[in-house]
Amino acid sequence: AEQGWPELHRIPHPPRRLPLLGDVLGANRRTPLQDSLKYARLLGPIYRRKAFDREFVFVWGAKLAADLADETRFAKHVGLGVANLRPVAGDGLFTAYNHEPNWQLAHDVLAPGFSREAMEGYHPMMLAVAGQLTDHWDAELAAGRTVDVPGDMTKLTLETIARTGFGHDFGSFARSRPHPFITAMVGTLTYAQRLNSVPWPGLLRRAGRRNEADISYLNRTVDDLVRERRRAGGGNGDLLDRMLETAHPGTGERLSAENVRRQVITFLVAGHETTSGALSFALHYLSRHPDVAARARAEVDRVWGDAETPGYDQVARLRYVRRVLDESLRLWPTAPAFAREAVEDTVLAGEHPMRRGAWTLVLTPMLHRDPQVWGADAEHFDPDRFDPKAVRQRAPHTFKPFGTGARACIGRQFALHEATLVLGLLLRRYDLRADPTYRLRVTERLTLMPEGLRLGLERRRVGV
Ligand code: HEM
């Protein structure tokens, strides 16, 4: 019953526990993460919840999270939502177990796809996709309509990863409804989340059948894309080329056809869903903080000058826009948790003994709001928290939107470049008008997204 935590009894839990169901009743299965945040506020920096016959330990205090970042004693744990994605993503990079040889193989083969050189190659494609977004927004504006922020950010980020990584065009901006790939993906993410709320998958039989259909659709899409590439011959050294053609520099080994399929799905999903949410939250905050928007825009005007489109280096120089993004990811890290397991018997932060294999979930949104780190106003949006001086004074391992260690996000630079570029372009082109009646509501499908966020636009100046 202790599940690898010999002193589990010392970890606080919610007051009312039901014999069979544990703490799950009263839990909202549509918003499990936000539910966990409520318990975190109630119970403190480490706590546990019981679901059915299992105990789950949650951690968010800065001291505990910093200790979990020690790669000599802890490693990624594939559990809960991530483990539930194994049927679709298998031993792809995100869902691979640490011991699976395909993790290191794919990591080494694909990492050069995220080098600075590779990123410079993606930049013109990212600009082209951003141009489709501004064309669409110009048309909405001309028609007197507000824009669907999460919907349009999802179109943008899907097209960006599809084009830069796979030379593929889903034609999202030509569609009025989401591409079926998106519908199937949202279906599998939502199903993976729901699996955590039942004692066994059989209880979700109908949803399970729907999920299998979604997975088949994702597989078919990916198989078509790979077949097309094999027929047409090499791309230009993009991710798909690396997956298909590149041998491991040390061992000469290549990815198997089955593993390529897993990686393509992994990158199409991991490569857009969280960036879309990050952009959406940032646009929400910009629309609510005109002073911040004005400062960010002044920076864009200064750094980009009269250039019609920014060069690669002109994006990295948008320091304040980047802080807006960081601050949005602080409050709403769109991949809101990651799991760590003990690789040896150890004591977490000198206080909580863990046996080898015991694991815990780090609740990033709470870590990012720990008042001991971020102050009494931690709930308040303020990009100056990421001013270099403030960053230097802060304890390490307190800002973790991209996870930690060897299994941290491989696409971090990709996401940051894309999102900073797009925020710069949008700030330069439009004034954002918030709907004063909108209250931020966050939907969950493993990832976070602002629900129903629409913004009004005004064209800022002609000719740009
Ligand atoms: C891993 C967040 C964008 C591909 C992760 C992890 C986090 C994360 C927290 C670690 C998960 C864990 O420990 O279980 C984010 C956020 C993004 C973003 C917040 C956007 C704002 C991207 C992009 C790509 C990508 C653009 C690809 C182009 C991956 C992959 C992994 C990963 C493949 C698994 C890495 C491994 O285990 O080797 N991401 N990510 N992500 N991410 Fe991202």
Tell me what the structure shows:
The protein has 464 residues and is of the alpha+beta class. It has 19 helices and twelve strands. The strands form four sheets. It has a five-stranded mixed beta sheet with strand order 1-2-8-5-3. Strands 4-12-9 form a three-stranded antiparallel beta sheet. Strands 6-7 form a two-stranded antiparallel ribbon. Helix 6 packs antiparallel against helix 7 (149-166) and helix 8 (180-194) packs across helix 9. The radius of gyration is 22 Å and the shape is globular. The protein starts with 31 loop residues before the first helix and ends in a 5-residue tail after the last strand. The structure holds protoporphyrin IX containing FE. Protoporphyrin IX containing FE is lined by residues 76, 82, 93-94, 107, 161, 266-267, 270-271, 274-275, 278, 333-335, 338, 401-403, 407-411, 414-415. Keywords: Heme, Iron, Metal-binding, Monooxygenase, Oxidoreductase. InterPro entries: Cyt_P450, Cyt_P450_CS, Cyt_P450_E_grp-I, Cyt_P450_sf, Cytochrome_P450_Monoox. This is Cytochrome P450. It holds the Pfam family p450.
